[in-house]
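Worked Example 4.2. Consider the chain below.
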Amino acid sequence: MRITTPDAADRVPLGQIDLYDPRVFSEGDPHAAWHTLRKEEPVFWQDLPDGRGFWSVTKYDDVCRVLSDHTVFTSARGALLKMLGTDDPAGGYQMAVSDPPRHTHVRKPLHQMMTPAALKQHVPRIEAGIKQLLAPMTEGPVWDLGAAMTALPMVVSGILMGLPEEDYPDLVRSGLMTVAPDDEEYQTGGSPEATLQQAHHDLFAYFARQVRKRRMDPQPGMGDADLIGRLMTMKVEGSRLTDGEIVANCYSLLLGANVNTGHVITAAFLELMEDRAQFERWARDPQYRKTGIREAMRWSSPVVHFLRYAVQDTEIRGRKIKKGEGVVAWIPSANRDEEVFEDPFRFDVGRRPNREISLGYGPHRCVGATAGQISLEIALEEIFTRVSHFEAAGKPEHLCSNFTAGVKHFAVTAHAR
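Applying the procedure from the previous section yields the following structure tokens:
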């Protein structure tokens, strides 16, 4: 997703705003559209050419309400705008597309494996994996920062899920096919629909094999050693998950991890390319390390939207939303709401307070938030230790997606300290 700094002159006529087309996010200016909507039409209805339509909410408080009030706005019908109007077949039993109390029953055992204390045992392997990924950073004249950071979350999710390292590249690609089926680099079968179908087939088949292999060759003590093992052994409302439910939640965990942290570093360094003083302040002063990460999360807003459906007639800011209508909560817009963030289009590694909601809000806030924080801390420590500054060696290539704000390629020269 392109990140711009719009002003009054960048107003987008309401009739020209299209937040469905993924090309708007890779080639257009979504921030100008959100800026206009926050000022003029914070609850905005968009008609699609095929007869479908959806509401967009762009203000911080409204986004938080839509994401937190599951009694009015359900996740169980689906969470991605790409599937608007089509009920998700995993609805009701996959964690990402279910509501409390079932969502809570699935989430709690997984969250117990994602606390700082529980993750401590995995940190050495995560650190080794990230250092291996970043090893080529200063070895040549040009390094693809975007590709490396796109692969970064898989290092962590692969370890926590107990997946073979040799499978990581294929899983990254299948994940990108799922969240960016319109992107020509990842497209297969000649259409976004065929790409999405292929990606779903490949990922579900992959995790089905993983579950089947564990059932056929159970290892002593492996039951709760990783997230897949926990899914296979835990009980929800008194019953074990079916293999289909296990596979669906593996798919959800993988995608949830892989669309989050990677873009954070790329987007931050892209902004700081011309601000070496702030880059150095972030690198050298410990007081800015955590605030800088949180600001990078706000700035990048890697998950662009979440879709919900109204389960009853309701209102937001006087707009009447009918039962069954889709409501899209735009995270990058909420993270730049002028009523919540002072000077929201300025990157500030020392920003306080910072109420960013990049990992979601309410019951569906990312279950792996702590793991993401740890991976960012490790990656940044390695980068700041080895690199004095980055210099652009090419233009960033943005992922063509209205769901993930990815920079898929960005050639840079990393100047060693």
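The longest strand covers residues 305-310. The longest helix spans residues 192-216. Compare this with Example 4.1 before moving on.
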